[in-house]
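Support request from a user on the community tier.

User writes: "When I paste my structure tokens into the form, the page sometimes reloads and wipes my input. The last time it worked, I copied everything first. Here is what I submitted, just in case something in the input itself triggers the reload:"
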């Protein structure tokens, strides 16, 4: 059976095609599993969920009669999705090399960073990709890629220059490479870690610093950010217990991206929370942990993407998100019919589902 796969637009999908991997919605929940044979109902479902592109197996495309030759839609999103998929495989190889004692191939990560930073107009695609591309296995590989994209996006939102955006992207990409040196039994342990296992796990920041500084071309601030991405503003982080401004700017950006990605990933399959729940948790639980300026830049821009979304309220009514409350991103102003409800004021009503 052919294992070649193509990413095609949902509009080009035809009944009989077979998915080449699981398809996730923007909150990380599975819509279709790998090897699902598409029918009209499934294609409609993808469209309704706002999915634009999916990977399908080549042989299943060829078996569909009447297929247009120009099915491989090439617009910005297509190019990015294909490249993203390739980059994930490259990262996997990089981490595998590291875990087997090889030195980091700097050319490979340079190429990925260049690919990401060289696409300034695609922030929206990147945010979508972070939310949509999710696999529970191979978690660290995707996590590194996601944190790189998120860090880059935050740096752009904060109006940093290209050099700084590049440093943030690189630090995000490499922040957890030290995990390659942690015993796999600890990384994959399903239950709670013992105290000593947790202490070993925490050493991944130092291992990461040691790995990247083997290459003397690494930017010093990027290496320091990898060492300090688990420091907290109040000094309760590790490994150095640095506070506030003593933590470098890149590490403070990576920390926000890291926590967001970890929170959304951990929620896959467990809860049916809206992304607003994650924004609320970040906003309310990060005092003393995250840099408030970075967090605010992140939340205000991320939540902006959800204006216009259709949601279901706890009253059972359907509403549209029309305005964000900066003091509480989880409680926007919504419109029901021709009525406006400020959820920050009307606390008895909340958003229970995205439609
Ligand atoms: Fe980490
Ligand atoms: Fe991480």
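"...and here is what came back when it finally went through:"
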């Amino acid at each position: 059976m052919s294992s070649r796969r193509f990413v095609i637009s949902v509009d080009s999908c035809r009944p009989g095609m077979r998915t080449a991997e699981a398809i996730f919605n923007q909150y990380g929940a599975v819509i279709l599993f790998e090897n699902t044979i598409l029918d009209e109902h499934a294609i409609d479902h993808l469209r309704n969920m706002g999915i634009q592109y999916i990977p399908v197996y080549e042989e299943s495309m060829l078996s569909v009669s009447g297929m247009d030759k120009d099915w491989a839609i090439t617009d910005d999103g297509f190019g990015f999705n294909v490249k993203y998929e390739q980059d994930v495989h490259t990262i996997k190889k990089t981490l595998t090399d590291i875990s087997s004692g090889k030195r980091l191939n700097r050319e490979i990560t340079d190429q990925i960073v260049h690919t990401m930073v060289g696409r300034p107009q695609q922030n929206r695609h990147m945010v979508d990709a972070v939310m949509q591309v999710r696999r529970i296995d191979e978690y660290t590989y995707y996590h590194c890629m996601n944190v790189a994209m998120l860090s880059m996006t935050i740096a752009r939102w904060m109006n940093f220059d290209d050099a700084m955006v590049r440093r943030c992207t690189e630090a995000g990409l490499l922040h957890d490479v030290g995990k390659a040196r942690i015993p796999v039994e600890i990384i994959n342990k399903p239950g709670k870690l013992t105290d000593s296992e947790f202490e070993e796990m925490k050493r991944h920041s130092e291992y990461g610093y040691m790995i990247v500084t083997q290459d003397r071309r690494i930017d010093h601030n990027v290496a320091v950010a990898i060492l300090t991405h688990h420091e907290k503003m109040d000094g309760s982080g590790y490994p150095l217990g640095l506070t506030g401004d003593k933590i470098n700017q890149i590490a403070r950006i990576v920390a926000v991206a890291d926590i967001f990605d970890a929170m959304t990933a951990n929620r896959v399959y467990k809860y049916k929370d809206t992304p607003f729940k994650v924004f609320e948790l970040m906003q309310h639980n990060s005092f003393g942990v995250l840099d408030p300026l970075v967090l605010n830049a992140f939340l205000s821009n991320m939540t902006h993407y959800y204006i216009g979304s259709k949601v279901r309220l706890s009253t059972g009514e359907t509403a549209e998100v029309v305005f964000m409350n900066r003091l509480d991103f989880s409680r926007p102003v919504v419109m029901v019919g021709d009525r406006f409800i400020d959820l920050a004021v009307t606390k008895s009503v909340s958003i229970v589902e995205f439609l």
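Agent notes: The reload is a front-end session timeout and is unrelated to the input. The beta strands are 5-9, 23-24, 30-32, 53-57, 310-313, 318-323, 333-336, 339-342, 351-354. The longest strand covers residues 318-323. Escalated to web team.
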